[in-house]
């Protein structure tokens, strides 16, 4: 099922107005299936992306918006509602945020190790250099609203 159709189905079940927009449909990269499972289990309620890699015409995520989480086959898994969005430096990301990302042992040390490697690769792909001291990170908090 296409993400748009899945979201239309979710809006009907949730009683949302038909005009409610879908912010995006995305997967969590190479770990798409495992991380989508953490979202469904309620263990992953946050994510992070590199502010510096958003395009000029690519808007930042917005609190109050809805997203469709996809598995590795780009099939819809669930709909989330974005509770909060903030931009912080990589080194200012909190232990609480790392815990809510739900990965590994959920520690800040684990989060930094995994995300530093992830962001280094992402920046390199964009022809940029990742610097933990200056990188700005978009932190999103969310919860699953469909399936309920």
Descriptive terms for the model:
single chain, 148 residues, alpha+beta, Sulfate adenylyltransferase, five-stranded mixed β-sheet, 5 strands
Reported by name, the CATH topology is Sulfate adenylyltransferase
Round the mean pLDDT to the nearest integer and report it.
96
N- and C-termini, Cα separation: 18 Å
The stretches of 5 or more residues where confidence is low (pLDDT under 50) are none
- N to C succession of SSEs: HEHEEEHHE
Number of helices: 4
Structural class: alpha+beta
The largest β sheet comes out as:
5 strands, mixed
CATH superfamily: Sulfate adenylyltransferase
Strand order of the largest sheet: 1-3-4-5-2
Helix content: 25-40%
Radius of gyration over C-alpha positions, nearest whole angstrom: 15 Å
Count the E strands.
Answer: 5
Please tell me the total number of domains.
1
Can you tell me the CATH class?
Answer: Alpha Beta
């Amino acid at each position: 099922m296409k993400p748009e159709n899945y979201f239309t189905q979710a809006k009907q079940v949730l009683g949302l107005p038909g005009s409610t927009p879908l912010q995006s449909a995305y997967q969590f990269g190479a770990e798409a299936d495992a991380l989508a499972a953490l979202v469904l289990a309620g263990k992953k309620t946050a994510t992070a992306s590199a502010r510096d890699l958003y395009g000029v015409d690519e808007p930042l995520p917005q609190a109050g918006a809805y997203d469709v989480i996809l598995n590795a086959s780009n099939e819809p898994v669930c709909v989330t509602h974005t509770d909060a969005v903030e931009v912080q430096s990589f080194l200012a990301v909190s232990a609480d945020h790392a815990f809510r990302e739900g990965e590994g042992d959920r520690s800040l040390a684990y989060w930094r190790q995994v995300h530093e490697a992830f962001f280094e690769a992402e920046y390199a792909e964009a022809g940029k250099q990742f610097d933990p001291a200056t990188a700005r990170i978009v932190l999103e908090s969310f919860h699953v609203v469909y399936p309920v």
